[in-house]
UniProtKB/TrEMBL annotation:
InterPro entries: P-loop_NTPase. It comes from the Bacteria. This is Thymidylate kinase-like domain-containing protein.
Length: 518
């Protein structure tokens, strides 16, 4: 039995953006909890743009004491963070992903938990250096942001080590063939920021505890910051830390190539084929299907686009359009639409609206009726295919966001069956066509979303957003249909006043999604 939540008359208050002075509220709560529960931590890299991390514009890379792992994970879950798992080709030893949602800003907070210092080439990170204890012991307090971060001297050394271990054979070839010696402006800015906060004596002291022969490293660190110097350092580091290598050189090369090829091909294949292919992170506890329905002008497309853009940066999100629009359509319907454009003039909006409610009307002519029957079947078949993709994505642990959702209660509109009136036709062929279409909509009814948002507003508000597209009478019928629409199964239905400001609608939607994402 589905649960219905009506927010049409609630008074949810949205905190204004002036809260985002130094930290988004969730990050402020997180850091405060670390101190209250005496969690040993350190934001260990990229502290030059720590302000961006505090505002959830970039990830939080925080090093923790492995002995506090169980206590830390319990604390994170109490604060609303959820553990997600990267695809196998992006998993690294002793690095975990916890993600939270700051409701006040609507931003996703991505917390990288580091228990060891796992570094190295992109797509592999084949070294694990025993420096985590030294980083935690030498951490410093940042008074501006109220957080412990790494000591600048240590962080500068780590910046060199990180860049040195990232170097691949292809990077060396590019360096010599293209004379690509210097780093990006962002990296140079980070280097200069750290250099101004370091002293040569402190650098020497730290290096003495890391390297057998520290002087060559010291001269590199206090020399020019470019790829040539980094290459020299790479040779020294790989020799010094050869026992800290997780893979043999040949094995590391094969693994890295395999991972890189997989990740890049997954991304390209997903975009090209529009299939639910994972390339980021998924929920190991299972996926979630979210549907958004409402009359035209209620804000469905705007809401679904915002939800997609919010979560897809960090999670694997699959977006499905269940409408009849001409966005992403099947090849057979493209061909059918091509015939229509060739033989028929473009109809007016009023004609389209009228035809949507009179599919296969015998008075409209045989050819027009055949066309409408074919179109209705093709649309239904696209919905059937999308239902299968939707369930496949959910099974993989993805977040599925559906713009519209098929229903089997209101006929001829609101994404319901278009040929229902033919189910009692004397023509056996027409009855068979109607039966086929009905079976697909019944399939949708048997596979409801986990969470459904009904965007409800009065007809005048909706018509003002899209003037002239539908009559007030038609809009009132559509809105009444969505209000009375019932969903089977365990679907949670949330009705939202679509006349509210967009930020309030999104606040409610994101809050419900995150609460449902168990």
């Amino acid at each position: 039995m589905n649960q219905t939540v009506n927010t049409l008359n609630s008074t949810t208050i949205i905190s204004s953006s002036n809260l985002l002075v130094h930290k988004v509220p969730l990050i402020h709560t997180l850091i405060t909890a670390f101190h209250s529960y005496e969690i040993s931590y350190c934001h260990w890299k990229s502290n030059e743009h720590l302000d961006a991390s505090m505002k959830a514009d970039t990830d939080l890379d925080i090093l923790f004491d492995e002995k506090q792992k169980d206590e830390l994970e319990v604390l994170l879950m109490e604060l609303g963070f959820k553990k997600f798992v990267s695809i196998r080709q992006k998993q690294y030893k002793d690095i975990e992903d916890f993600i939270g949602l700051d409701l006040h800003s609507g931003k996703v907070v991505h917390l990288h938990l580091h228990y060891k210092l796992t570094l190295g080439e992109p797509y592999l990170k084949s070294y694990q250096l025993d420096l985590h204890k030294k980083i935690l012991e030498s951490r410093v307090w940042d008074d501006e942001f109220g957080i412990y971060r790494s000591d600048p001297n240590t962080e500068l050394i780590l910046l060199y080590i990180r860049e040195a271990l990232k170097m691949r054979n292809r990077d060396m070839v590019k360096m010599y063939l293209k004379n690509k010696i210097y780093y990006s402006e962002n990296l140079i800015r980070e280097y200069n920021w750290l250099k101004r906060r370091c002293s040569s004596e402190d650098i020497k002291t730290i290096l003495k505890g890391m390297f057998t022969n520290y002087l060559p490293v010291f001269f590199i660190v206090f020399g020019n910051f470019n790829r040539i110097e980094t290459l020299k350092l790479s040779v020294i580091i790989k020799k010094e830390f050869r026992k800290n290598r997780q893979f043999l050189p040949l094995g590391a090369l094969a693994r890295r190539w395999y991972r890189e090829i997989c990740v890049k091909s997954y991304k390209k294949t997903s975009k090209f084929l529009n299939r639910p292919i994972m390339s980021h992170r998924i929920n190991p506890r299972g996926g979630l299907i979210v549907g958004v329905v409402g009359a035209d002008g209620s804000g469905k497309s705007t809401v679904t686009a915002n939800l997609y853009n919010t979560f897809e940066k960090k999670l694997d999100v699959y977006k499905i359009y269940f409408g009849r629009g001409v966005g992403r359509v099947s090849l057979p319907r493209k061909i059918l639409l091509g015939f229509k454009k060739f033989f028929v003039q473009n109809p007016s909006k009023k004609q389209l609206e009228k035809s949507a409610q009179s599919v296969a009307d015998p008075r409209k002519g045989f050819i027009a009726n055949v066309y409408k029957c074919l179109e209705a079947l093709l649309v239904a078949n696209e919905k059937r295919r999308n239902i299968a993709l939707m369930q496949a994505a959910r099974k993989k642990g993805m977040l599925v966001i559906c713009d519209r959702f098929p229903q089997n209660q209101v006929m001829a509109y609101n994404d319901g069956p278009l040929l229902h009136h033919l189910s009692t036709s004397r023509n056996i062929i027409l009855r068979a066509i109607a039966k086929k279409e009905a079976s697909i909509y019944a399939l949708a009814e048997a596979n409801p979303p986990d969470l459904l948002f009904k965007l409800i507003a009065n007809a005048e508000v909706v018509e003002a957003r899209k003037p002239g597209e539908h009559s007030l009478e038609t809009l009132e019928k559509k809105i009444a249909g969505f209000k009375n629409m019932e969903i089977s199964g365990k679907c949670k239905v949330v009705s939202i006043d679509a006349a509210r400001p967009l930020e309030e609608v999104l606040f409610i939607a994101k809050k419900e999604i995150w609460a449902s994402y168990l």
